[in-house]
């Protein structure tokens, strides 16, 4: 079943990490759906067919068409293929094997999706900072330099659909909130892989796996982030392809905001504190002369 709904679309386009951390630019420190930045359009969703299911989100194929196409990111073409993610509270199986999802209320769903969007908003900037550090070296062209994968997080945005306003009201209430992400194409040469879990700083792939070098590289970027942030933050739950990453978790020190959950629920303080003991420096850490933790 193809569900077609009018939506407001808000692109996730963070500034640099330096700007995110600038106390004089507090308005940039969190992803928000600012009405002045909304793009109007239509979202078509294969709502009855899930292409993936995590611990609290389902993923569906969808197509976004904005009335005025954007210059970059999602929404640059008509009927652009996207992954549409929705949250759920619980799931159960019917006798025929069909999975039934219990969805959150509209306000709860909106809050959770915005939290996920903010998580990705920061992750994009943190990864960008890591690459800036790497590209500051003048030894990248050296024959002994380990290969540097050209990775980035998916382009993404939040889409909101509204109820039809009541006759005596000019304000419509939110009906559904979706997280839209760039579709990650996979094939025999490029499969979807989880490289690093959020519960451990050790690569998930075996040493002889064809994609182990990317897992090693991502563990190296964790080392950069942990070190350069003063042992305050690093990215984890790193997964995707050899080009695109999705669904990251931002791990923060319990010292920040008195241990408050600043990002998604996978931000576990006890796991963060294990990072120096779990991380094993690899060829990337050695080549770029990172300090031993």
TrEMBL record:
Lineage of the species this protein comes from: Eukaryota, Fungi, Dikarya, Basidiomycota, Agaricomycotina
Ranges of residues in domain Alpha-type protein kinase: 67-293
Top-level taxon in the UniProt lineage: Eukaryota
Stated name of the protein: Alpha-type protein kinase domain-containing protein
Keyword Lipid metabolism: no
Matching SUPFAM superfamilies: Protein kinase-like (PK-like) (SSF56112)
Keywords: Kinase, Serine/threonine-protein kinase, Transferase
A GO molecular-function annotation: ATP binding
PROSITE patterns: ALPHA_KINASE
């Amino acid at each position: 079943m193809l569900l077609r709904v009018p939506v407001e679309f808000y692109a996730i386009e963070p500034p640099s990490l330096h700007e995110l951390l600038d106390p004089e630019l507090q308005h940039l420190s969190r992803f928000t759906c600012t009405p002045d930045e909304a793009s109007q359009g239509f979202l078509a969703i294969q709502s009855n067919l899930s292409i993936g299911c995590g611990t609290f989100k389902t993923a569906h194929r969808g197509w976004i068409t904005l009335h005025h196409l954007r210059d970059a990111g999602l929404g640059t073409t008509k009927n652009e293929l996207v992954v549409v993610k929705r949250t759920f509270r619980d799931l159960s199986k019917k006798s025929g094997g069909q999975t039934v999802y219990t969805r959150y209320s509209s306000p709860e769903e909106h809050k959770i999706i915005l939290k996920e969007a903010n998580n990705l908003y920061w992750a994009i900037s943190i990864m960008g900072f890591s690459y800036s550090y790497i590209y500051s070296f003048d030894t990248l062209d050296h024959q002994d330099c380990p290969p540097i994968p050209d990775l980035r997080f998916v382009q993404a945005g939040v889409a909101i659909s509204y109820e039809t306003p009541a006759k005596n009201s000019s304000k419509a209430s939110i009906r559904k909130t979706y997280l839209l992400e760039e579709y990650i194409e996979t094939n025999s040469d490029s499969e979807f892989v989880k490289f690093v879990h959020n519960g451990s700083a050790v690569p998930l792939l075996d040493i002889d796996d064809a994609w182990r070098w990317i897992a090693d590289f991502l563990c190296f970027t964790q080392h950069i982030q942990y070190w350069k942030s003063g042992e305050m933050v690093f990215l984890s739950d790193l997964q995707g392809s050899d080009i695109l990453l999705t669904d990251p978790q931002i791990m923060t020190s319990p010292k920040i905001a008195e241990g408050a959950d600043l990002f998604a629920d996978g931000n576990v303080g006890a796991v963060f504190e294990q990072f120096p003991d779990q991380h094993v420096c690899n060829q990337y850490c050695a080549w770029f002369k990172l300090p031993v933790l």
